[in-house]
Specification:
By secondary structure, this protein is of the alpha/beta class. The chain has one domain: Rossmann fold (3-Layer(aba) Sandwich), CATH 3.40.50.720. Strands 3-2-1-4-5-6-7 form a 7-stranded parallel sheet, sandwiched between helices. Strand 6, helix 6 and strand 7 form a beta-alpha-beta unit. The N and C termini lie far apart (46 Å).
């Protein structure tokens, strides 16, 4: 029996990292409203549980797993728990991210490690963890939330840009590795989004993107007919903030 048109993702399982707030929370909610069971992952338990309760109140099947996705043992536990509680993962959204902004000469090795491990190593670990089962089923979506910083450099953005440029390159290569197995790897590059993530000094918040704008792009990707896939989305506000 096919899924109802209003809930086209019924029977599918989505794993969303950085899902306790902002963009990740909006994406998880959107996928849940489309019918998917959603595994929510973040480092802090309290906001993660709040997000899960929000999904539960809407009748969305959901699971909250506290994990540091830059650690392979946490990734393995996250994936195993999701499979045990919800089923095989059909959609992976790598959204967890951190930033460090300032002159590159002032950055420490610890700053570099924190940004690159969360923004680039973690998506690699998760992709590696879920891809084999997707390959066996010959279907799946892997969606990386990058940034327009993957395309454009800016003063103070050396570490963040390095992580997002790397994520873009990894995703494009992964798409070629996996497309023959029916797996579609995509990247979404939003501009400035009104969240707590980074400072937006001098920008008009009324003109900035919202988390739901990014969630809409993810919805568009996962609902693309199976004969094609959207490899990259550049998402900008209508007016410059």
């Amino acid at each position: 029996m096919s899924a109802p048109l209003s809930k086209p993702l019924v029977g599918q399982v989505a794993l969303v990292t950085g899902a306790s707030r902002g963009i990740g929370r909006a994406i998880a909610r959107r996928l849940g409203r489309l019918g998917a069971a959603v595994s929510l992952c973040a480092r802090q338990r309290t906001p993660l549980e709040e997000a899960r309760k929000e999904m539960e109140a809407e009748g969305i099947a959901s699971l909250a797993v506290v994990a540091d996705v830059s650690r392979s043992q946490d990734v393995d536990r996250l994936v195993q728990t999701t499979r045990h509680e919800l089923g095989e993962i059909d959609i992976l959204v790598n959204n967890a991210g951190v930033g460090w902004f300032g002159p590159v000469q002032h950055a420490t090795e610890e700053d570099w490690d924190r940004v690159l491990e969360t923004n680039l190593k973690a998506p690699f670990l998760l992709l590696r963890a879920v891809a084999p089962a997707m390959m066996e089923r010959r279907s799946g979506h892997i969606i990386q939330i990058a940034s327009l910083a993957a395309k454009n450099s800016f003063a103070g953005g050396a570490l963040y840009c390095a992580s997002k440029w790397g994520l873009l390159g990894m995703t494009q290569s992964a798409a070629e590795d996996l497309r023959s197995f029916g797996i579609r790897a995509s990247v979404v590059c939003p501009g400035s989004v009104l969240t707590e993530f980074s400072p937006h000094a001098g920008k008009n918040p009324d003109k900035m993107l919202r988390p739901d704008d990014v969630a809409h792009a993810v919805e568009m990707i996962v609902l693309q007919p199976p004969r094609s896939f959207i490899s990259e989305v550049l998402l900008r506000p209508t007016e410059k903030p």
